[in-house]
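Hey, resending since the last one bounced:
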Amino acid sequence: IKKVAPTPATILITGETGTGKELLASLVHFGSPRAKGPFVKVNCAALHDNLLESELFGHERGAFTGAEKLRIGRFEQADKGTIFLDEIGDMSATTQAKVLRVLQEQEFERLGSSGKSVKVDVRVVTATNKDLREEVKEGKFRQDLYFRLNVVNLAIPPLRERLDDILPLTRFFLNKYAVDFKKKVTGFSPEAIEKIRRYAWPGNVRELQNSIERAVLLSDDEIIGPHNLTLEGRAEGDPVTSVDTMNLEELERGAIQRALRATRGVQKDAADLLGITPRVLNYKISEMKIDWKSFRA
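The structure tokens again:
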């Protein structure tokens, strides 16, 4: 990071979901000469294609039904700074072409524009949990864009391959949330530490962070015990149970309900716990008909 952050190079960060790609992108930005400029984040998987184009490039008044005024897009907001495009592997071919133009010419047109280009000075950092080389072979991702993005590739290994990082990260998150929640939580019992060490952390750093946040928030003692740690998967060596074979919707519903319970029905905080945007959480709550008001304190 120390070598590439000070340069203007475009960076592609790869790794499983939850490994800390957004954190790494922020370290690149704040370690660069653009640190005083804006750091703009966009989750490309969270928005429908038409909405994503408007989000990235903005639109003119009257560009489409409901476009009652001019909107400045994220690329324009990131001028003189860095834009972080997360989950870029989920971007449509049309939007890929427009992003390629920004990379090549540092300019774009707002939706509904009469041909007037907007010039920007933006560093682009992207991330994906997909193998873009395979996506290129299958015709799902533009090869020319891939080469433009992959000037520097930073690959983040999953947490299960970074065992020495687990306990330092656990301590860091404990201290952070003890301060945030004004709780006198000082450490973990030996049994809790053993549970943390044995768990596979399929959700990586994000799952670890959320688990410690939950434990600190709900703990009534200074020392967190194993009963305070609600882990979604199995520890290494544990037998498979019916919980492990639940379908995806049941698991997702359970995760949303636990997040709402932990945050007492505050959707923004619940979305942060789950690692998704409030808009996506609201959509899922409506789709699954979850009574979020019942979780209010």
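The chain has two domains: 11-155, 163-295.

Sorry for the duplicate.
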